[in-house]
Amino acid sequence: MENKKEVFVIGHKNPDCDSVCAAIAYAYFKNRMDKRYRYIPARAGELNSETRFVLDRFGIEYPMEIESLTPTVSDMDLKRPIVASPQDSLRDVTILMKENNIRTVPVVDENRRLVGIIGLKDIAEHYIETMGFCDLSRIPIDLNILVDTLGGKIITNPKGIKELTGRIFIAAMQKTTVLSKIGPGDVVIIGDRTDVQMDLIKSGCSALIITGNSTISQSVIELATRKGTLIILSPHDTFTTAKLFDLSTPLHSIMSREVPVAELYTSIPELKRKIMESKYRCVLLVDGDRRLISIITRTDLLHPIRKRVILVDHNELSQAVDGVQEAEIIEIIDHHRVGDISTLMPIMVHNEPVGSTCTIIANFMLLHQMDIPQEIAGLLLSGILSDTLILTLSTTTEHDKRVAEELVMIIDGITIEDYGKELLSASVDIDGKSAREILLHDFKEYHLGDKKVGVGQIMTLDESEIAAKEEEIMQEMANLRDEKQYDLVAFLITNPLKKGETVFVKGDKRIIEKAFGVKVEGDKCFLHGTLSRKKDFIPAIGYFCSTWNKELE
């Protein structure tokens, strides 16, 4: 059950088109270039309308959504467990433990469903409880199991007995003493004492177990047949036969049914707690139908267990999927400012000041002279055009334009201008969306100086659509500020035709006013020449937040 060595390629929370397209395209690139792992594209939230349009347009399956990178049992190297059946004998399971150097064995039925567990402690307790003469009335022994354990054979069984009950005696005393202790229904272990055997059968004992492969008198066999007495011949001496008799106990009679279990998506912290609380020092892994998958012991937790991940289009904890600090980050591919994510080991980080993460990934493919399929080229072009507002934002570089031109030549029947308009139309479709959905359409959180800031952005050519929901959006901004304890929540309505953006503001308005030299009136203002959140808006307010106290003097 070897770990598949999966690596998730994932963008930021509230994923935009560039983030999702970059994740899919980079996973494709890595799968072509590196066979050590299986790279899986993922997303950290709902897809927006623009991204859904792109994926549908190029026939790409929506990437899986990941809510957290906190490691789970599924991230472990799981071993195939050694198991026993409820009908197995105590001897069977002790041999199994000795041969495999294990202390605990899960017990499963014929469909591999977990029914119990047995450990060395259970076996020891059973021996202590059954020391001395044993009474089988509480735990009957299956006849077939007993014969198999002894390696013996049945000589007579006129009543067709299937399991032994009653008291067990060893006939090692004088004849009169033995006969005084034995009653109807008892089981007697005895050697080659024909006269005592005959008297025991007459006294009504239910079974004789004759040891040492002794020759059994024909008269004993005939009498046992008439009286309905079971006779078993054991190849072992009396002492060994008595020990093996106890080892014939079926597991279902002594196994524990209080089984510590976990499932594939149990978190590692929860798994550790279960193992520490278990008297067996292990947890049994089962599926939804309680079929056994594996056994996990304390030893399996000696090494760190983490999901592997590549982050694209972000490098800040506030924007990353939950649990990223518990994951093994392998690479970061980004085009934003350097954030606060740190790693224990050196990793590959590629951060380039271009307009789109898709530009970087497309360039990787072009440098490797890789044949880029039309659908992957379509995703890369979409990410570039989306993040640069059809190559018009101030973040757009000549590199973005050159890569976009190379990609469009791969795709049949489209031009940058025409496809860009399709993309923009899809991105500003707010019909049927709530004010909160509009606000969170493309929302990011930033820690700037000692300020916590949330910034949403939407592109539109017709601001009347937003104006109709302005009051509701403002209320949702206030709600979000209270929920997340933001110092400032800003919502940017970007209109490329006006070469600027209207800003809705909730929180400390001085941050906007000081950063841009404007007056915020009625919780709104207009910023001329500001189209890019990452290049125009965030750097300006970031600088002011980092020098907050000095600026207020």
Architecture overview:
- The chain has 553 residues and is of the alpha/beta class.
- It folds into 3 domains: 6-71 and 307-427, inorganic pyrophosphatase (n-terminal core) (Alpha-Beta Complex), CATH 3.90.1640; 140-248, HprK N-terminal domain-like (Udp-n-acetylmuramoylalanyl-d-glutamate--2,6- Diaminopimelate Ligase, Chain: A, domain 1); 435-552, DHHA2 domain (Diaminopimelate Epimerase, Chain A, domain 1), CATH 3.10.310.
- It is 36% helix and 21% strand.
- It is built from 20 helices and 23 strands.
- The strands form 6 sheets. The protein has a 6-stranded parallel β-sheet. A 5-stranded mixed β-sheet has the order 7-12-11-10-9, with helices on both faces. It has a 5-stranded mixed β-sheet with strand order 19-20-21-22-23.
- A hairpin with a 5-residue loop joins β4 (104-108) and β5 (114-119).
- The longest helix is centred in the first third of the chain and has 17 residues, at 17-33.
- The protein is elongated, with a radius of gyration of 38 Å.
Topology:
Layout: E1 6-13, H1 17-33, E2 38-44, H2 49-57, E3 64-65, H3 90-100, E4 104-108, E5 114-119, H4 120-129, E6 141-142, H5 143-150, E7 153-156, E8 163-164, E9 168-170, H6 175-181, E10 187-190, H7 194-203, E11 207-210, H8 218-227, E12 230-233, H9 238-246, E13 261-262, H10 268-277, E14 282-286, E15 292-297, E16 308-312, E17 328-334, E18 348-351, H11 357-367, H12 374-387, H13 398-408, H14 416-427, H15 435-439, E19 443-448, E20 451-459, H16 464-467, H17 470-484, E21 488-495, E22 500-507, H18 510-516, E23 524-528, H19 533-546, H20 548-552
Parallel strand pairs: 1-2, 1-16, 2-3, 9-10, 10-11, 11-12, 13-14, 16-17, 17-18, 20-21
Antiparallel strand pairs: 4-5, 6-8, 7-12, 14-15, 19-20, 21-22, 22-23
Helix pairs in contact: 1-2, 1-11, 1-12, 2-14, 7-8, 11-12, 12-13, 18-19
